[in-house]
Amino acid sequence: MTFDVTSHPEPTTEARRQQILADPGFGTNFTDHTAVIDWTQGAGWHGARVEPYGPITLDPAAAVLHYAQEIFEGMKAYRHANGGVHTFRPRENARRMNRSARRMAMPQLDEELFVQSLEALVGIDADWVPSGEGEALYLRPFMFSTEAFLGVRPAREFTYRVIASPAGNYFGGELKPVRIWVTRDFTRAAPGGTGDAKTGGNYAASLAAQAQATEKGCDQVLFLDPLHDNAIEELGGMNVFLVTADGRLITPELTGTILEGITRDSVIQLARDRGLQVEERRVTLDEWDRGVQDGTVTEVFACGTAAVITPIGELLDGDRTIASTGTGEVTQSIRAELLGIQTGTVADRHGWMHRLV
Ligand SMILES: *Cc1c(COP(=O)(O)O)cnc(C)c1O
């Protein structure tokens, strides 16, 4: 499928773009274009195009507004020293979007078409890719139901879009450990639910807990397992790893309530490459707490596309604070390697990078 291209009649001025790129922030500024593909039952995917970025006209009865049939992906494109713009493991995002689509009764999008949509958008908006350290063009593919119908069944019309936003360092400049709030009032996902689908509803359900975290002076929320309330699951949008003094990495196993992070998978691979033992299993809050206290757990970090790898410092559980582990060597070193691969300064031995432009 080829993408019809309609250029923005009044693109952002060079001066304004330079101003945005000088301090990109996260998720507030968007490039001049968007890639779009529509789906209708019977006809399948059609109308692939790149068009000017702007508001979407939607029928007030559009199913997404009522029943939240929506999924998304998140990835980053980096400018390399060779001038090319490269993204990280895009086919993994394509596969995950299709897994999310299956769970949410939405259509499958061909992996190749997914990658083509990124190439089409970044091709026209390549000047928006920042080149500062830790900076990237954040790509947000998403799909939602547009059919105007209030009956409850999978919709028969969808749109898939990609928008792009220049992104700075997610948690600000230096690698400072984040403070985490353990929620005891809310869970994020339940067995058989949608926890392993990247869907907006999971985020909507996490916001009350996130608001509590902010109130407690924390950056993020840690969700516990929905049935027993003592195994750790993940943060609202990042997976969690514990590092032990004897060189093991421990991360909660994927049981259907945790989102399968591509950063998580990559960290596991890089850790195994170094000869570190990785354990994907049930890990309780007690194990974390005891481990930090007796010195067997030396580092804890969270990982995801937006922040890549970020150390977890204090963990607040009610009135109790679980001792801080600070920024450890393993966290720093795996982060440096992963970022190096993504930004093109470390050899891409697993063939993870894909050149878009
Ligand atoms: C996207 C996401 C992650 C991280 O996935 P990456 O592919 O590493 O970006 C983790 N948890 C949730 C809930 C997510 O939505």
From TrEMBL:
| Annotated positions of the N6-(pyridoxal phosphate)lysine modification | K198
**Keyword Amino-acid biosynthesis belongs to the record:** yes
Q: Which residues form a coiled coil?
A: none
Query: Does the keyword field hold Ubl conjugation?
Result: no
Q: Give the Pfam families listed for this entry.
A: Aminotran_4
- UniProt enzyme class: transferase
Identify a single GO molecular function assigned to this protein. Answer: branched-chain-amino-acid transaminase activity
EC id? 2.6.1.42
Q: Which cofactor does it need?
A: pyridoxal 5'-phosphate
Pathway linked to the protein: Amino-acid biosynthesis; L-valine biosynthesis; L-valine from pyruvate: step 4/4; Amino-acid biosynthesis; L-isoleucine biosynthesis; L-isoleucine from 2-oxobutanoate: step 4/4; Amino-acid biosynthesis; L-leucine biosynthesis; L-leucine from 3-methyl-2-oxobutanoate: step 4/4
Keywords from the named record: Amino-acid biosynthesis, Aminotransferase, Branched-chain amino acid biosynthesis, Pyridoxal phosphate, Transferase
According to its UniProt record, which reaction does this protein catalyse? L-valine + 2-oxoglutarate = 3-methyl-2-oxobutanoate + L-glutamate; L-leucine + 2-oxoglutarate = 4-methyl-2-oxopentanoate + L-glutamate; L-isoleucine + 2-oxoglutarate = (S)-3-methyl-2-oxopentanoate + L-glutamate
Which GO BP annotation is one of this protein's?
A: L-valine biosynthetic process
Instruction: Report the PROSITE patterns cross-referenced here.
Output: AA_TRANSFER_CLASS_4 (PS00770)
Alphabetical list of CDD domains matching this protein: BCAT_beta_family (cd01557)
Taxonomic superkingdom: Bacteria
Task: Spell out where the chain crosses the membrane.
Answer: none
Q: Which residues form the signal peptide?
A: none
InterPro entries, sorted = Aminotrans_IV (IPR001544), Aminotrans_IV_CS (IPR018300), Aminotransferase-like (IPR036038), B_amino_transII (IPR005786), BCAT-like_C (IPR043132), BCAT-like_N (IPR043131), BCAT_family (IPR033939)
Q: Which family, according to UniProt?
A: Belongs to the class-IV pyridoxal-phosphate-dependent aminotransferase family.
Q: Could you identify this protein by its name?
A: Branched-chain-amino-acid aminotransferase
Protein's organism: Nesterenkonia xinjiangensis
